[in-house]
Design brief:
Elements lengths: L17 H17 L4 H7 L3 H17 L8 H6 L6 H15 L5 H26 L13
């Protein structure tokens, strides 16, 4: 069996700059806030976008640069959102990949895309277990 993660770059300060992380987060969430499917979901749960973007930048800095300033527990907040479905997770992931496709930093793009795909799949599986505990949790299907 081939391990596809073997070719992924490691997180660290040499992978990308804080400015690159912030630019990724800002560009991605501009897309989210303009998206017909996702904008309403996010608007219903986020009151202070500036604070949320700072927290998301801390999260992605931790994932891509190995920093340790992120303080949060995103799983319980997302699991409480009954309105989430596979199509929304797929849309989130599609917008993320559209954003990373515009990055000039290919190693950063590769790691960010891998992490985002794992986040979407993990959150989707956990969401199914939260709201349909007696049914099998299926992987996130590929978008159409």
């Amino acid at each position: 069996m081939h391990d596809s993660t073997a070719a992924l770059p490691l997180p660290g300060p040499q992978l990308c700059s804080e400015d690159e992380v912030t630019a990724l987060v800002d560009a991605f969430y501009r897309r989210v806030r303009a998206d017909a499917a996702l904008a309403a979901v996010f608007a219903a749960h986020i009151e202070d976008w500036d604070a949320h973007l700072l927290q998301l930048s801390d999260f992605w800095s931790a994932m891509l640069r190995g920093t340790r300033r992120f303080r949060g527990a995103p799983m319980p907040k997302h699991m409480a959102m009954r309105e989430l479905d596979a199509a929304l997770f797929q849309r989130w992931l599609g917008l993320f990949r559209a954003t990373t496709a515009e990055l000039d930093n290919a190693p950063m793009r590769a790691l960010a895309d891998d992490i985002a795909a794992r986040i979407a799949d993990t959150f989707w599986r956990r969401h199914q277990m939260s709201w349909r505990p007696f049914e099998p949790a299926l992987p996130l299907p590929p978008a159409d």
